Amino acid sequence: MKCWSIILAAGSGSRLAPAAGGKKKQFIEWKGAPLFWHSAVVLSRVARMQGVVFVFPEEDLEFAREQLASLDKFRCLGMPWFAVAGGKRRQDSVYNGIAALPRECQTVLVHDAARPFMTPALVNRLLDALKDGAQGVIPAIAVTDTIKVVDDGIVTGTPERATLRAVQTPQGFIRSVLQQAHETCRAEDWQVTDDASVLEQAGIPVAIVEGEPANIKITHPEDLSMLESQTNTAPAMVPVVGWGYDVHRFGAGRPMKLGGVPIPGGPEVVAHSDGDVLLHALTDALLGCIGGGDIGEHFPDTSAEFDNISSGILLNEVADKAALAGLVITNVDVTVITQIPKLAPWKEHIKKNICRLLKLEPIQVNVKATTEEKLGFTGEKKGIKAVAAVSALRPGI
């Protein structure tokens, strides 16, 4: 079932604006991005999610589109998105969001941008319920406080707590069902507070799944402390592995260097830089740990700037980028594959130099050399290649 999400970011945020420096809450910066973006990132991590429609105040729409384009360029949501203007009421904004959904969308989640703490697990529970036959489904958590019904300052009743649930977003629906219910809502001018209420008034049953206590809505000035506490908490470190591979052809060119160490008597290599195949593979492996592309993107062989440049300089630049990303290298394992020359005399020198370049201890670095038993281009002494694996810890997102 093809699913899209509508992220509602069209509110005025009047209760929170004074404490947020006049900003509407959906545009408050948290961890380097506005609140509305964080929900989109969570949704993008759900394999079944195919796109997002953002709904913004009409007066902020162009600004928001520019923000989205910039965020998506550098952080890459990985799925299509649209941005449309909202309406006067929440239900009007949802209606506009539904109208922007592509025709092939079959199920839809509606989410408040001011709830940045939801998880992919919650999204998957909702999608599972829709797949199992629910026409509408909402996340809910049990109420722990006693609730009173009050009229004009006087308690008039105490509902049975066991029957009460606190409701959250995202809320999931069969697209056609939600669309028809909203058409009726507009025609009859119902006043509703969420999309489940629209289905309820239309007589359509709404199921529940277990919500998340941490899935809190940023509404009041004191709620900003939740963002601050999340920001000040060090993110968990996650293990990552990067892999690199590089090849150079033998021929008139650069004197052989491996791991930054000159190899006397080795064949010359054809290269734009200094031709250090081992450090090139290692640089690519390090880029792999931070999602940084490949060495050719950063140091193209068409640029005169990198003509005969030391590969150690290139590795240092990438290591600096990795450090800024919070990467902690735990182990480096490299292998050089060549028929000539024999590298046994140089392996320890190469290992020490890699330790120096990456500020690692000897136990963290391993250097190997092998042949391919006279097979392939290396076996025919036409060239040399290297592979590298870097294991590391990177801050979670």
Supply database-style keywords:
397 residues; alpha/beta; Spore Coat Polysaccharide Biosynthesis Protein SpsA, Chain A; 60s Ribosomal Protein L30, Chain: A; five-stranded mixed β-sheet; 27% strand
Structure description:
With 397 residues, the chain is of the alpha/beta class. It contains 12 helices and 19 strands. The protein folds into 2 domains: 3-232, Spore Coat Polysaccharide Biosynthesis Protein SpsA, Chain A (Alpha-Beta Complex), CATH 3.90.550; 237-395, 60s Ribosomal Protein L30, Chain: A, CATH 3.30.1330. The protein is 31% helix and 27% strand. It is elongated. The two termini are 28 Å apart.
Structure summary:
This protein is of the alpha/beta class and 397 residues long. The protein has helices at residues 35-44, 61-75, 90-99, 120-131, 175-188, 195-201, 224-232, 277-289, 295-298, 311-324, 347-358, 376-379, and strands spanning 3-8, 29-30, 33-34, 49-56, 81-85, 107-112, 136-142, 149-151, 154-157, 165-167, 171-174, 207-210, 237-254, 257-258, 261-262, 269-270, 328-337, 365-370, 383-395.
Helical content (DSSP H or I, runs of 4+): 25-40%
What is the assembly state of the chains in this entry?
single chain
* Record field, number of beta strands: 19
CATH class of the largest domain: Alpha Beta
Total of helices? 12
Global Rg: 29 Å
Task: Assess the beta-strand content as a share of residues.
Answer: 25-35%
CATH superfamily of the largest domain: Spore Coat Polysaccharide Biosynthesis Protein SpsA, Chain A
| Mean pLDDT across every amino acid position | 90
**How many structural domains can be distinguished in the coordinates?**
2
* Main sheet specs: 8 strands, mixed
Q: How widely separated are the two ends?
A: 28 Å
Catalytic activity: 4-CDP-2-C-methyl-D-erythritol 2-phosphate = 2-C-methyl-D-erythritol 2,4-cyclic diphosphate + CMP; 2-C-methyl-D-erythritol 4-phosphate + CTP + H(+) = 4-CDP-2-C-methyl-D-erythritol + diphosphate
Domain 2-C-methyl-D-erythritol 2,4-cyclodiphosphate synthase: 241-391
Site (Transition state stabilizer): 15, 25, 272, 371
Binding site for a divalent metal cation: 246, 248, 280
